[in-house]
Every structure is written in C-alpha cells, then in structure tokens.
Fold each of these.
Amino acid sequence: MLPNVPRERLLDFCRRMLLVRHFEEALIGLHRERRFRGHYHVYIGQEATGIPALSCLDERDYLFTTHRNHGHLLARGAEPGRLLAEILGRSDGYNKGKGGSFHIAVSGLGFLHTSGVVAGIIPLATGAAYAAKAQKTGQLSVCLFGDGALEEGAATEAFNIASLWKLPVLFLCENNGKYGRGRAVAAAQSSTMAVYPLTDLPKAYKIPALEVNGADAGAVYDVVSEAVRKIRREEGPQFIEAQTVRWPGSETNWPVVSVPTDVSLAWDVASVPEAEQEWYRNSDPVLIFIRELVEERIASREEISQIQKSVLEEIDQAAKFALSSPYPAPETALEDVFA
Ligand SMILES: Cc1ncc(C[n+]2csc(CCOP(=O)(O)OP(=O)(O)O)c2C)c(N)n1
Ligand SMILES: [Mg+2]
C-alpha cells in the first residue's frame, strides 16, 4: 500500500529508498576493494520502514539509532559524501572520522547518538524524552532499534520509566529476524525471547504496541503518524514493531551483493541467483514500492529509471568526495573526545 501523500512526496520516498540501497551497495563494494577496514551493517531490506517512518517527524525531534544506522541518517537528509567519509574514518566525515559507522552523531539532523552497543540507546532516548518533557519543548524522541535489543535489561528499565512518567518517546523496533529467520518463522516463535509476540513486552509496561509489515510503506506511514500524533497529545510512549524479511546478502557476517539492485528487478528477477529470487520477488521493500508506484500510475518505469540514474550519480560523487578526504591528522587524536 502506498502512503496517502501527494505524488511529489511519493517520488521523494522512492528517491530516498534508492539512495539508501545504492549507498549501501557502494559501501559493500568499497569494503570488498579494501578501501576501508572495520565492521559495518547495512540497511538493505528495511528501507520501507525508515523512510516513511522518519518523514512523520518534525525537524526538531530527537533520534537515536543503532549499528544499522546509515538508512536512518540518509532518510533524514544526511549528505551521502559526509556520511561515507565518516564510515571510512576520514576528516570530512560528520564526526571528523572519529565516530565511524557505529557511533555517528549528527545533531543538526536530530541524531544525538548512534550506538553499536545493543540497546545502549534505549535509556538515552528515554532520557532525551524526559528532558523534552521537563523543559516543555514539545519535542519527541524516537528510538530505533533491532529485535535483539529487547533481550537487554536496559530496554525494559527504560520502558518502565517511560510508561510511569508518560514520556514523549516512540520506540520503533525493526524486527529483521536476528539470525536470518524470516517473518514467517519469527512470527511463530523466537528462539531468543521468552516473550512472544515481541509487542507483549512493552504491553506489560502499559505501553500501547502495534505490529506492522515493515515492507509496506503505506502501513508504516499510517501507524507511525498515528503514534506521533498520540505522543504529541501527551498520551505517553508508543511502541511499534516493524517486521521485515532479512535480505539474503545479510545472512553472513559480512554483507554480500549478488546482483546490484536495478529497478528492472521489480518486474524480472531472472538475473538474481535462484536461492535469492524469492526475496527480490516478494520481500524487497524497494521493489515492492516501485511496483506499486507504477501499478497506481504515480510514475512510469522510465521515470523511476531516471530517479535511479540520478541517485547513482549522486553516490558516485559521494564516493569520490569520501575517498579524496584525508584521514584525521594524528595530532588531532585527542580533540573532541572525552575520557
Ligand atoms: C550489548 C551488546 N551485546 C552484544 C553485541 C554484539 N552484537 C552486535 S549486533 C548484534 C545483534 C543485534 O540484533 P538486532 O538488535 O536485532 O539488530 P540487527 O543486527 O538484527 O539489525 C549483537 C548481539 C553488542 N554489539 N552489544
Ligand atoms: Mg534484528
């Protein structure tokens, strides 16, 4: 289902989804070519959650995200070149190369912190919501985390306080099936959580909680905009579990792209290895969105190809910018850090 918004906005969602997809594919390519070291996680397969969801927020709202943050930052308008430079540890990155993929902070976009510590941001996002409430600023705090974070005590402690104090926080859990389990399996049972469905956990703390198909941009847009309205009406915290099917390229520890995404895959997946075709045919949120745009006559296949072309050019420029940026000078190692 397409979000019920004007055509221009739908095309903007399409552009942002393709930007995230091609950014991540370029990143995987740079890592394969050994242009940078260290671990990183990609947002491929979750684009139809982050892009419509974050479009429901105001510019002044706070965001907190995890090791899988690139898509969230791009959804909010991060410059691909500066983001890539940060991931590559270069001095033109958002944090002068000292945050890297896991700990980027871009306060100008509302991102006070991202953290590779699973669940580490849940209390921080709750704290920011407390500050907003105490200072009566009207801001809300959005906490983006994976299903795995619910195993941590930090999550439930934060839910308790958020509920007791009716804090303006949206807990948006992106359930991508932690160990490669698809939605069908995850919905039946979790091997790592005694609480299932996952929404039972926030509900135990009296936080209203909903599940949504995270590959359905329209459904995500509806539940998130309604949750945001409730929080702004001071109804307290809300919890949403967005369910996606994990991208086959993320089954291993290091992401692998078998076939770079092309909008033509929305109609023909023959170029994809057989074992992965099912995902591209039925679960790839970007291709689902593109098919809907065409079927609903919002855009033609040619118009979408044009959007893809301009996104690929933008990514190309971003890669050139990041790769030509110098590493931070050794004498700056102790600047902007706290110990
Ligand atoms: C406190 C903590 N424990 C363990 C890890 C190692 N770790 C990194 S990612 C990850 C899985 C996280 O799963 P989830 O939150 O569902 O995110 P996903 O990678 O599936 O998007 C784990 C256990 C960590 N980073 N932090
Ligand atoms: Mg997960």
Amino acid sequence: MSENIKIYIGLDDTDHVDIGCTTEKLNHLLLYLELNINFEIVSRRLVRLWPFASRRTRGNAALSAVVLLDKNDENKLYNLCNKWFNKLLSEISNHPLCIHPASPALIISKTQFPNEIYWETVRGHVKLSSRLLQIKNYNCKIFSSNSQWGIIGASAALAWSPEQNSSYELISWRKKSMIGKKRLINLETVIELDNKYPQTFLNRDPTKNRGLIAPRTPCPVLYGIRSSSPEILEDSHKWLQSKQDVEKSSDYAIHCTNQLSDDHVTPYYGTVLSKPTTSKGAHSSIKVFVNGKIRTLLAFSQGDSVNRLLRLLEPGDIVSWTGLLSPSDSSIHLEKLSILEPVPRIYTRPTCCGSSMKSAGISQKLRCSGCGKNCEKYWLGKMPNFSEIYMINNWTEPNPSNRRHLSKPLDLGVPILNNLIP
Ligand SMILES: [Zn+2]
C-alpha cells in the first residue's frame, strides 16, 4: 500500500477582460488531472484579493485546490500540469489585445504557504520581486508566463486557510454554445430561491429588484450561489437546474471562499473635523482626525446610505468606519460607516410653561414669560435623528449590488473596533 500526499495547487491571472474565468480554468485543470491520474479533491478555494491591486481582474479572485494523491504519482502530476499549462499559454496568446493581458501562474506546493502571504495580498500592494523572494524557499513548482504577475495571486490563494472566516460559493459554468448569449435566469425564480433556501445569501438586491447570482460580464460563469453551508448549495443548485426558466449549466463546483469576510479592511474610529463637501462626481467627503493624523473619508454616490449618513455628519462627531486606503491620494474609500457619538445638532433654550425661556438682553438672565421664573443662560443641545437611514447596530452599508465581494454584510455581524493608523 503506498502513501498519499497532500498537494496545494494555486492558479491565477488566466482571464482576459472578455474571455474566460479562472474558476473555470481551475475546473478544467482538475478534470484533466482526473482523467489521467488517481486523486481526490479535498477542497477548492476562491480567494478574493486587494480590490485596488493595479493588475486585478474583474473581481480580483485567485483559485486554489487541495488534493490527495499517491506519492508515486507526484512526478506524473507535475508533467500533466506542465502540459496543461503550456496549452493554456497558447490559448492565451490568441486573446485579443488589452491593457493587462493575462499573465497566468500555476503553483504546485507540498506545503501550505504561510498566512502572512495571504494577509499582505488581501490588504495591500505586493511587489512581484519581494513575493518571488518570499516563496523561493518553499518546496514548490511554479509554471508561469514570462511576466510572472499571476504568481502574486496564486501564492496568496495557496496561503489562505479557510478556518478563519469563510463561507461557500457554488459556481456553475455555461455550456460553450451559450457563452456570449444572454443568460437565462428568471428573476422570479431567484426570488423563489431566496425564500426556499434562506440559508443562502446575496441572491438578489431587494432595493433594486435585481438578481445578484449571475455576473453581468461575458465570462463563462452561469451563476454563483453563496451560503455558509455547502449542502444547502448543492440542493439549491439542483433545484435551480430543475426549473424551466433557468439555463442548464455544463458543470459546477463548490468553493470555500474568503468572500464576505472583511479581511481586506480594518475598522477605525476618529473625530470629524470638517463639514461634508460634495463634489461634481456626486461623491461626498469629510476630514477626520484619527490617531494623530488627518484623513479624508470618501463616500461615492453608489454608496447610497453611507453617502447619506456622511452628508449628515458634523464636526465633533465621533465616527467609525471600514474602507480602503487609496494608493493614489491616501483618501479612504468608505465601505461601512457608523456614528459612535454624535455632537448635538440644534441648540434651544430650556422650556418653561410650555414655551422656551427667553433672554431679555446681554448679561440678562433667561426668563419665562408665563410664570416669570428666571435662571442663568444656557443652551440645550438636541441629538440628531438618523432614523431615515438604514442601520444595523448604528452601522450602515451600501445596498447589496454596490458591495465588494470581500465586504461582510452587516447582518452577518458589525465591525469590531481597534485603532491602528490607517
Ligand atoms: Zn414658567
């Protein structure tokens, strides 16, 4: 009896803006390997990375898989991967020209890369040269295009461990003959899916009456269904596929993912320093003081209730937020916003006998015109009312269509504060 070994496979940067999807490419690779070698897929991982990465693809996702195989088949696996990868390179060389042509990388490793590699790549810019140095000492095989960019994402996908903060996404792919045509997925059926399987999330945006399971790009993905339970996903996919008004998929797979984890952001709090300003581009901004630094918080018009809350802020309010520090101008692009301690908004005099007391003049006391009682001058502050803004535990977020894949919806939990310098 021979020994089984665990192998980690990471793949990234295989798609063109109009062609392909790395999820589908990983599926191809695993199907190809299955035909030629005996092995077991332990898990597939869909790992979203820093949304501001300059070379990102649409959702900036990288893929990985963990497989078990016979130790004697190790070299056979490398040979098959090499063959498959060369075929992928020749396919990609036929892609139409674009600004960032695909720069694929496939990494096969016998150990999981350290967690820091994931955290660096989900939270900020990574230099290719430093990543190459970092992974040099691991016992891994790297297949890549000459430009090697894909190594950054592929290595991060290998370094993510799902124990931390994960959920699942079932991805189904379209039949080849359907790619480029309009996807057939009835909104009524998506609403039914939402009601029938309440453990699935983000199937639709109720504020826009729009389904969220299908991408709006020409990629080969038919739809993705999200849940914290893989069993529910399998059932809901089968149910969708049984419907007349839903396109039939060619294949599907369940991925463990860091989506909805908020791993890309750290919550902060600070004091508002300025009144909000609104620019022509319809985004609003305020200045905040946080840990001895002044930062600009930006809310975009599509951020809806985040933008609305920001426009109601006053200097002195203590707010907390999550957002991404823009590498171009160091402003913070808000994702979630909360008002921790508002300052009073409207100031009034104390009341007596049903109306407010009035001062007879400078250096005069306040006096009630009803009973004649007087007192020293003071103002009463009225706290603001934010009841017209959608909030959960004082936090607000954009509607589901405008959230990033990585953003954790407030109904799954509000951010926990600490205060490092953003
Ligand atoms: Zn009175």
